[in-house]
Amino acid sequence: MEIPIPAVKLKPDMILKILQIMVKHEDDSDIMRSQIVLSYRNKSSRIDEPSEKNILRAVTFPSLRKLGLIEGEGKEIKLTPNARNLLRVYKLRGMPGYKRKLSKLIYVTDKKNGQILHTLGDLKKKNGGIIPKDVFLSELKRKYKLKTEIDERILKDRMKRWFLYLFFVSFVNYANSNIQLNDVQVNACLKENLIKISKKKFVKTLIQEYNYLKNREKGLTYVPIPMLRDAVCKCFEKEGMMNEDFYEYLRSIERETKDYTILFSQPMLREEGGMFINERYFYYVSIYSKKGD
Amino acid sequence: MVGRKREWATLVRRLKSAFRGTSCKFIVLLGAYGIGKSFTLEKLYSRFKQNEIEEFKGTLVVRTTITGAPIRAMDSEPKPKFGLDFVTRLFFNIGLDQLQQIAKKVKIDDVPNINQNIRIIFNKLKAGDEECFSILTGEVASARDIKSFGLKSGIKDSSTALRYLFDFQRILKASGYDNFLVMLDEFEYVISTLGEKKITHVLNTFKEVFDQFSLSEGREPGRMTKIVFLFASSPGGWERLIRLVKTSEKKTGGGGIAPFYDRINSLDFITLAPFSLEDTKELIKSRLDIHRANKPPDPFFPFTNESIELIHELGERVPRKILEYCDILLEEAAEQGLKRITAMDAKKILEKFRLYPQKARTSEGK
User: Fold this and answer.
1) CA-CA to B94 of 20 to 30 Å: which in A69, B63, B217, B293?
2) Using CA atoms in the order A88, A92, A95, A96, what is the torsion angle rounded to 10 degrees?
3) Among A27, A75, A76, A222, which would you mutate to test the B interface (most chain B Cβ atoms within 10 Å of its Cβ)?
4) Cis upstream peptide for B302 (omega within 30°)
5) pLDDT per residue rounded down to tens, chain A (293 residues)
6) B237, B189 in Cβ contact below 8 A?
7) Is A139 exposed, middle or buried (0-12, 13-18, 19+ CB in 10 A)?
8) B chain contacts of residue A247, beta-carbon cutoff 8 Å
C-alpha cells in the first residue's frame, strides 16, 4: 500500500550545508559529490562509515528532490529556485530567516504528500487540542488503509523522519506522548511567505523570459516549464518567488487574452519540473503574441 | 484549411523557397499533440496532387498507398538498417504506377553515371515489367530471384540503398522533376525511441542525402532532382534532439548529430499555434456542415456560443480535443433528446465522462 508521507532520510539540519556545497561546486559534479560525502560522514554518528552510494543515492539526492530543492539526474543535477531562495535568505537574514523560508517548503511538501499537518489539525479539533501519538498513528493507518505489519513499520519510520522536519521548523512539539501542533507557527509561515507580485507584472516577466529562452536555439517555440520557471524566479529573487509560487501564478493567469495565447504541451516521456493542470501533466509552454500579426 | 492561414502561408513560402534553391532542404513543422501536424501534411499532399500551386508543379511527393497520408518517420518495429529501410519504403510509397510513368518519360540508357542494376530495373519498368518493383521495395532478396531479373545484386544494405536513391534522383531529373518532397510525420519517435548512436545514424543518413546533392551539383550541375524533407515533430521530440546536439557537441566537438542540425535554416521552422476562438468556431462550423443535410440559420446549431466557448477552453485550443468533445456532446445530446447544447448541458455531459475537471476555469464565469 502506498504511504504518501515523504521519504526523506536526510536530517533537516544538514540541508543548508549540502546546498552550500552544491552551489559552490555547481560546475564540478565530482568535487560536489565528494564534498557532500565528506560533510555527511563528518556529521554521521554511525560506527561503520556509510558508503558514497548510500550517502548520495539513497539519502541525500532523493531527500533534496522530494523537497523540490534539486532536479535532474547524474551530472545534470542542479539546484532549483527553491534551493537558491533558501541560500539567499540565509545570506541575508541568517538562520531565523532561513528557517522561515524552509518552513514554507516543508508546508508545501507536506500538503502534496501525506498532509500530516492537515490530519493533525483535524485531530486537534476533535480531541480538544491534544493529539496522543497512538491516536495519530491509528488515524494515519485508517487514512492510508494500511493493514500489514510491514506497512505499519514503514509508516512509523517515515513519520519519525518527517517529524524531524516538522519539529525543525517548529510546526510541532512533543509533550510526553502527545503531539502539539503549533497552528500559530503554521499560519505565520503562510502569511510571511506570501509574495506580493501582481499578475500583470508576472505575465510581463513571463513573456519577456519566454521570448529570451525561445531564441536560444533556432526554431524553438516550446520552452520547458522548469527552464522558464528558473528564469522567472530569478527575476523575482528579491520577492522570494519559489517553485510553487511560479506554478500557482502560471496556473492562475488567463490562457488567452487580446494580447497573447498560452499553450501547455505534454512531454513525450515523463520529465521533472512540469506541472499538473486539471489532472494532466504538462512540461512545455509556448506563448503566441497577437500583437502585430 | 481552418485556422491556419499564417502557418500555411509560411509553409508554402518556405517550400517555394526550397524548390527554387540550389541545395536540399530540411523543413520542420512543430506542434503539440493534436494541434494538426498530420492534418497539415495531408492538406499539403492533396494540394500538390491537385496542382493548386504553380510553383509546386514539377515536384514528386511521396505518399503511402492506403490513405494518401505522408509516410511515418518510424515504423512500429524499427528495422536494423535504416538507410535500407528508408529507401525501400520511399520506393514503396512512390508506387509502381508512378515509377512506371517516370520511367516512360526518360531514355534510361541516356541517363549518365547511374548503376547498371538500376538501369536494368527502370528499363524493365518502362517495358511494363511489374515484378522488378519488388527489388526496389526490398521484397525480393534471394540471389536466385535477383539473378532471374538479370541483376548482379539486389539492395542488401544501406550503402547500396542510398546509391539507388541517388541514381533515382538522376532519372527523376531526366524525367522532368526538379524537386522531390519527402514528408515524414511523427519524427519524434525517431528521437525518443532510439539510443543516441542509432539516432546519429538515422540523422546522418538524411545528412548524406542532403550532401550528395550538393556534391553532384558541384560536379555536374542540373543532373539530380533535389530532395526537400519536411519533418513533422512534437516539441518534446525536437527538444530532445537539441539536447542531444549539445551533448554530442561537447563529446565530439562538432560531430554526431550536430551536422544534421546545422543544415536546418532558422527560417525553416514552422510552428502550429493553438486555435483562437474564431478558429474553433470555424472548425466546429465546417465539421457540422459536412454532416448536415440542410443548413440551419444558426451555423453552430445545436451548440450555443457559450457551449462553444466552453469546448474551446476545455479543449485547450487544440483541434483534436475540440473535435473529440464536440463528438461526445453531439452523441450524448442525441441520446438525451436535447434540442440545443447549452454550456450547462455540455458541463453535465462532460462531467459524466469525467472530462470536466473539478477546478476548471471556464467561460461560464465570464
Assistant:
1) B217
2) -110
3) A222
4) yes
5) 678 898 899 999 999 999 999 999 999 999 999 999 999 998 877 777 889 999 999 999 999 999 999 999 888 899 999 999 999 999 998 998 899 899 999 999 999 888 999 999 999 888 877 788 888 999 999 988 888 888 889 999 999 999 999 999 989 988 778 888 988 888 888 776 677 899 999 999 999 999 999 988 887 889 999 999 999 999 998 888 888 889 999 999 999 998 999 999 988 777 888 998 877 899 999 999 887 54
6) yes
7) middle
8) none
Distance, in Å, from the CA atom of A178 to the CA atom of A123, rounded to the nearest integer, reads 12
DSSP assignment letter at A256: B
Task: Determine contact, residues B178/B101, Cβ cutoff 8 Å.
Answer: no
d(CA A170, CA A173): 7
Helix axes A81-112, A149-168, angle to 10 degrees: 130
Residues written for chain B: 366
For residue B199, CA distances in Å to A109, B33, B88, B115, B188 come to 39, 22, 19, 29, 11
Q: Which residues of B sit within 8 Å Cβ distance of A?
A: 6, 28, 30, 32-33, 188, 192, 234-240, 242, 264-266, 268-269, 271, 273-274, 276-277, 313, 316-318, 357-360
CA distance B62 to B48: 10
Residue in the structure block whose three cell numbers are 534551493: A83
SS3 of A253, please? coil
Which of A261, A278, A283 shows the shortest C-beta gap to B359? A278
- Write the residue in B238, B264, B360 that is nearest to A278 by C-beta: B360
- Position of cell 538501369? B119
Q: What is the C-alpha separation between B53 and B45, in angstroms, rounded?
A: 11
**A173 CA: distance to closest CA in chain B (Å):** 35
CB contact set of B281 (below 8 Å; sequence gap of 6+)? B300, B308
Nearest Cα of chain B lies from the Cα of A23 at a distance, in angstroms, of 23
Answer yes or no: is the ipTM higher than 0.90. no
- Residue A172 phi/psi, 5-degree rounding, is -135, 155
Predicted TM-score (pTM) above 0.90: no
